[in-house]
Structure formats: C-alpha cells, structure tokens
Amino acid sequence: MDKEKGAYAIVELREAASRERALAQPQHALAGRSLRVRPREQKDFARPSPGRGARREPLGAGQLEQALCQAADVDAQMEQLVGLLELSEGERRLRHLLVTLFQEVFSEFFPGCAVLPFGSSVNGFDAHGCDLDLLLDLEPTKSLQTSARGAPGAGSSGDPGAEESILSDIDLASASPPEVLELVAAVLRRCVPGVRRVRAVPTARRPVVKFSHKQSGLAGDISIDNRLALHNTQFLRLCGEADKRVRPLVYAVRLWAKQQGLAGNPAGGGPLLTNYALTLLVLFFLQTRSPLVLPTVARLRELAGDEDRVVVAGWDCSFPRDAALLEPSANSESPSSLLAEFFRVFGDFDFSGQVVSLREGRALPLPEAGEPFKLGSLNLQDPFELSHNVAANVNEKTASRLGRCCRAAAKYCRSLQYCRKSTKGRGWGLARLFQPGAVEPGAGAGSFLISIPLAATRPPEQLCEEPGGCGFKEICAAIAFVLRDVLQCGCAPGKPQKQVGGSGAEQSLPEDPALGEEPPGDAAGLEEEPPQPPVGSKRPQPDGTDSAALPGAKRPRVNGPEEEEEEVAASWSCAVWHRVWTGRRRLRRQLLHGASPEEPDGDPLELEQKVSEAIVQHEGAAQPPEPLLRFEASARLAGGTQREPRVLLRLAPSPAPGPLFRDFFHFLQAFLPSALRRHLGWGPGAAPQS
C-alpha cells in the first residue's frame, strides 16, 4: 500500500506456499518505503436468482395504469402501488453489498470509520431507482488518530498503529471539509470497482461527494457531516411502521405530485418539492386527523426512553426507535378516504402565511417559527432541525400550483370515477388521478386539460354571448398561432367530434379560423352551467321542466358536479417534431444579449419564436421522419356569467402518453396562457418560462 499515491495493490502468487511465506515476513518494503501487507479476504457474493426477489424493471406508465385498474377498489390500489414501486428483495441485497464494498475499501484508508446508509433506501419509503445516500462517519478514525499520536513512540516503525492506515499522516481533525471531501473522492475514483462520475460538491448545504456505480446503475451521495439525516431516516421508518396506512398514502401522494410536475430531484436545484418534503406533508396531515393517526414529534419525545435520548448539533432528536412502544391509533378512516381528505386540506392551505410544524402537529403563525427559519412560499419545518425550511426552494408558482392541483384532485375524489371501478375498462381511482391534468374539470379519459383564465381580459358576458363570434374566434386563432408559429408544431384542422351538452346530437366542429376556414356565423350562445348542488344532494330539474310529465327513462339529464356543459369551438390535429420546451431560458438569454440596444421592441412573441427556431436549427433543420409526439387538441369556453370565464384546451395524445408528452404538457401549462395574453394584447403577463 502506497501512502503518497493513496492506492493499494492485490498481488496474486502462483502457489499457496509462496503466499504463506510472504505473509510470514514481519516487515515489507519497496524502494525503501515500508509496506503494509495482509491476506486478501475472500468473499462470495451470491447473485440473486431470476425468481422471487430478483431485480425488477420499473413499470412504465401504461403498465402501472393497467395493473392498478385490476384492483377491486381504491384501498386495494393503494396497497398494490406500494408493492409495484418499492424495492425488491434483490435490489435491497444489491444496495447492501455496495455498502459492504464501500465499508471494506474506506476502512483501509480510515480505520474505524463506518459507512451508514440513510434516506430513501432505508427509511421505509424506497422506490425503484432511488439514490443511495451514505454517511461516512470519520469520528472513530479521528479518535484513533488522536490516541496514536498521544501514545509513547508514536510514528516509529515499531508502533503497530503507525502503519494502520495508508493515510495515517493526514490529520483529519485539522483538515477542512473540502479537503476531506476531495480525499474521499480520490478513494472512490481509484479504489472502488465500478464507481465513476465522481464529483465533490463542497458548496452544497450538506457537502457531499456524488458518484454512480456502473454495474448496478445506481447514483448516490457520500456525506461526511450529516448525522441529523440518520435520525430523520429513523423517524420516517418509525412512522411507516406505526400505522399500516402511512406507506400507501405516502406512495400515492408522491407519485401524484411527480405526475403533476410538482415534485422533482433535489439535486436539480429547481423550485419543485422533494420526496422528503412531500413525505413530511403527509405525516403532518396524519398528525392533524381526529382521532390522530400519528403522534406529534413533541409527544414522541415524551415517550422516548433513556436509551433513545439523542442531541445532535444542539437539536433534540429523542424519540422511540421501536414502533411497538407507540399507542395504537383510534382513527378508523380508510386509506382512500385519507387520500381524499389530504387533497381537501391542502387545497385551501395557506402555505406562505403559516409554518407546517410536525413537532407541534399544527400550523404555526410565522413569528413562532423563530428568527433563523427561512420563510418562503411554502414553509415546512424539519421535525428536528427547527431552523431548516425543508421547502425553502419552492417558489410562489409551484406553491400555487400545488394548491390548485390539490383542489382539482379533491373534487375528483368526490366523483364516482374515483370510488367505483370502471366496467368499461377505463381509467378509474388512482389510475386516472395520476394522469397529469386528467382530473381537471372537463378532462376526458386519456386526455390532459389546460385551463386558460380569461378574467380581466374582457367582460364575461361578451365572451359568453359570442362563442362563434369575433371574441372567441380570436382566442382559437391565437391558440393555433402559438402552437404552429411560435412553437413550430404541426397544426391542422381536426376531425368532427360530438358535442357534449345540448341535444347530444353529433355536430361538426368549426374549423380553425387561423387555417382559412370561417366558423358558422351567428352561432348559438353558450348555455350557462347550473349551480352545482352539494355533494350527496339530489340534482335539480331544469327550469320549465315538468318531471311528472316525463317517463323515468326520458327525463332530461342534468350535469352533475363532475360534468360541465361543453361548446367545442375548434379542434386541431397536432404533431411535435422538436423538443421546443427544453433549454429555452438559456437560448432566450443568449438572444437578448446579442440584440442591439437601439433595436425597437417588436412583437411580444417574436423572441419566443426565435428561441423555437434556434432549437429546431440546433437539432437539424431537416424534419425527422416521424414526429416526437402526436395529439388532438380541442378548445371550448367554460364558466359563463356565474363563474370566472376560461378557455379549456384539451389534449388527447396518441398513442398513450409517456414521459416525453408529460414534459411537453407541463411546459405548455405554464407557457400557453401567458403567450395568449401577450399575443392578444390583454396585458404583458409573465414572461414565458421553461
């Protein structure tokens, strides 16, 4: 082993006798340098059999939906979801073997150290592909170094501790965190088989070394000073074991948030919620039920025994480590009803005006959070490190979308599509809930809905009286313009569709005015939607209808809470040929930087059109043989005089939507409403983002 180069070698001898003679020598040297030689441990790592417990490939969106639709009810879907997403036994063994490998290697360089996994892999809420988070505990190594330096004759060749480590001449106690991180990164690069893409990140809130492992395909982090994370992991595991409803609820909420574009990888540094933040929101919600499903952190501290009392960096992390010591919950709500209530509670929650506290189990006024706590658009206090806002990265836009998506999900959870299994093979329950935009009012099966508010644009009565007139015609033409000219999508008049509402007869849709066809003049006005009855109450009869004069089978159907009157004004068949939703912010900055200051301002969307053209040019001006995405789009006016008027744009992808379409849909959700307002001169709006 070479201390200067930080490397070691494995020497294979021809005969076992030669190996024994070499090991019998008390001292070894090479070019005048003392070497530490010891027998190589032989470890047999059994490969998982292809049967039960072997590594599974993650299910695609279509496979997941198909599997969920086979369940008997939503409670069964939630239970099945855990089994579909959690790590298999083979995947757990693989991660354990990697931890063992890391422990073996790092022990050669840092005697007495411990490699401890934390986070998603071991907190009870694991999922396929989750990162392998590790803590390299160097405190025992520092203690050994201190003891060795204080011992008589320390550092001499006769001292057995002098050559205990290749890096024994490096004082870990005095080394700075960046220096230790670089040392850890060097060991990973040179000495751990299969590890690549090693990168030290000393500027992170918790400095880490990032890596990936080639054979397993796993990515991970190694931190050297994050003992709080170990106790957070144990706390989450305790909550998951305390009540069998906790894990299904957490898995359902996290997948829902991911599908709606609300959650992402914390390494990305964006304004999205992390899985840890979403898990804490679920646990907080369960602390607020009556009766409680989970105890508060303050109550757990009271239940902790002497062996469970821990203080880390000044923060009290005391709580029982054994779920059997907790009092059983008297709450009898089903998992499906808890999920519906979760959406209802957070649909109207004031995220920026109060602090979510798991320690107290209630929302705290902002002053009670304390001075070091960083307030933001969503205030979520860590259960132990009370000065840390777990959701500090979330911006106002994401927090607003979270509330809006929760309200739409809560409304969907009151419908029969959520509660009752479909007899026609359609998506129901969780399968439909997980589709982005599918639970927005008016979204059909397999479609995605974008709501474009028209408040403060022109009087609502003008829009409602002119579904086929100039006002609505302008909106439809603007939608086609943004898709076709600004985003460079193929956009052709769609096929005739059935009109929902009215007589129910099949009618042809007016073609896109932007494509040269005029819709019929003097079109009938849109019908106002009737006031929605409370959930569970009887639907009112239409005005002027004598229900007694109509046979039961002939009574007019009145739309319920989950249906709306539709007047489809236009439809288009669309194709997306280039990834026009990626890298727009960077290209926008480059184009603005290169523009002349004297150049007059042009069309508000001219810059966005140039950004799309630059993306197309970068990917190759020639049109690919097949588009990346295909979808049918249809626009209609909703609301009326009693509601805020809005245009609902429905996208129906073909074939079934995958991750690529979902990325495009989330981009279009943010980009399109702002682009329409700018194009129609209804106000500057926010600059389109991506």
From TrEMBL:
GO terms for molecular function: metal ion binding; poly(A) RNA polymerase activity. Its cofactor is Mn(2+); Mg(2+). It comes from the Eukaryota. This is Speckle targeted PIP5K1A-regulated poly(A) polymerase. CDD domains: NT_PAP_TUTase. Residues 22-57, 495-568 are annotated as: Disordered. SUPFAM superfamilies: Nucleotidyltransferase (SSF81301), PAP/OAS1 substrate-binding domain (SSF81631). It comes from Anser cygnoides (Swan goose). The keyword Nucleotide-binding does not apply. GO terms for cellular component: nuclear speck. One of its GO terms (biological process) is RNA 3'-end processing.
